[in-house]
């Protein structure tokens, strides 16, 4: 089942989301963007009439959510994100709503089809872009699932891969090793080329597109990584 | 076969890449046609577009076989 706006957030979700929002707000004031490859295309997202499907690895969500909020949502851009049906997902959903995102609850394993249907409807009827984490909600890390490709196929909207790195960061002990830039971190961001999926694509072509998303995101990881740091696997 | 049923089977057969003649009411979407979650999304969208209907999330959750889809459409 895809739930967009629950009648009531749990106390746990409200407390965690509020605390995290404070922490993220404070941290974001200290970050500096060192480079932004594809920044012009990023800025054009705000003014283009057709929505986009931003795709990022799950462990990039912490900083990217802040970037999206400060540079897109605060300027009237509409974006939706899917948050899993778990208790942790409820916190993510609460945070997403506070950031100004539309939140659709679901995951590839639970309520996923309904969630992606809601994404499709939101894109089609409201021109709302979506942020998809192709290896979410529980991995395997850096393996893109097919949902992002099917959404691109059905909507006709392109997938735009995005990644970032920070010269100083914490890595959480989660399955995805969530990246949390440390205070005063220098951030490097890169947007990949658009990936479009033909409505009549065959199964092989869909798989090719899925691999293209995966490859693009890994290449972006490599392009933005600080010098002297080994490539992630 | 009614035109309505033909339209439904046409959508399913194209997606599953099988002949419409092979589809029976008891044909299961996952077990027999291999319609996984991404394809299920595509199926629902294409049914809605081809048949000009809206399938609610509750209705979608109950669709496990070709027969379920035919019954659902007949009720619209």
Explain how this protein is built.
The complex is a heterodimer of chains A (233) and B (76). Chain A starts with 10 loop residues before the first helix and ends in a 9-residue tail after the last helix. Chain A has a 7-stranded mixed beta sheet with strand order 1-9-6-2-5-3-4, sandwiched between helices. Chain A has a two-stranded antiparallel ribbon with strand order 7-8. The longest helix of chain A has 22 residues. Chain A has a single domain, classed as Glycerol-3-phosphate (1)-acyltransferase (3-Layer(aba) Sandwich), CATH 3.40.1130. By secondary structure, chain A is an alpha/beta fold. In chain A, helix 5 packs parallel to helix 6. Chain A contains 7 helices and 9 strands, in the order αβαβαβαβαβαββββα. Chain B has 76 residues and is mainly α. Chain B has one domain: ACP-like (Non-ribosomal Peptide Synthetase Peptidyl Carrier Protein, Chain A, Orthogonal Bundle). Chain B has 4 helices and no strands. In chain B, helix 1 runs antiparallel to helix 2 and helix 1 packs antiparallel against helix 4. The mean pLDDT of chain B is 91. At the A-B interface, helix 5 and helix 6 of A face helix 2 and helix 3 of B.
């Amino acid at each position: 089942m895809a739930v967009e706006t629950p009648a009531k957030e749990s106390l746990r979700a409200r407390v965690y989301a509020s605390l995290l929002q404070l922490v993220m707000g404070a941290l974001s004031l200290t970050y500096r963007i060192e480079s932004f490859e594809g920044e012009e295309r990023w800025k054009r997202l705000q003014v283009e009439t057709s929505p986009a499907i931003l795709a990022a690895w799950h462990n990039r969500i912490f900083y990217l959510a802040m970037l999206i909020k400060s540079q897109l949502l605060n300027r009237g851009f509409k974006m939706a994100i899917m948050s899993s049906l778990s208790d942790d997902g409820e916190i993510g959903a609460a945070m997403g709503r506070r950031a100004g995102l539309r939140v659709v609850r679901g995951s590839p394993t639970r309520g996923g089809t309904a969630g992606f249907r809601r994404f499709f409807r939101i894109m089609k009827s409201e021109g709302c872009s979506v942020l998809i984490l192709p290896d979410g909600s529980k991995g395997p890390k850096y393996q893109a699932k097919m949902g992002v490709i099917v959404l691109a196929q059905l909507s006709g909207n392109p997938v735009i891969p995005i990644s970032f790195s920070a010269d100083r960061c914490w890595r959480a002990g989660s399955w995805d090793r969530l990246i949390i830039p440390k205070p005063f971190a220098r951030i490097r961001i890169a947007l990949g080329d658009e990936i479009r999926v033909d409505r009549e694509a065959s199964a092989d072509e869909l798989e090719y597109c899925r691999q293209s998303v995966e490859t693009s995101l890994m290449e972006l990881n490599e392009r933005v990584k600080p010098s002297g740091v080994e490539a992630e696997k | 076969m009614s035109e309505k049923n033909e339209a439904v089977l046409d959508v399913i057969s194209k997606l599953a890449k099988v002949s419409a003649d092979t589809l029976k009411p008891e044909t299961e979407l996952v077990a027999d046609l291999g319609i996984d979650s991404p394809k299920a999304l595509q199926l629902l969208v294409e049914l809605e577009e081809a048949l000009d209907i809206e399938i609610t999330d509750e209705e979608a959750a109950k669709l496990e076989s070709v027969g379920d889809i035919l019954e659902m459409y007949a009720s619209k």
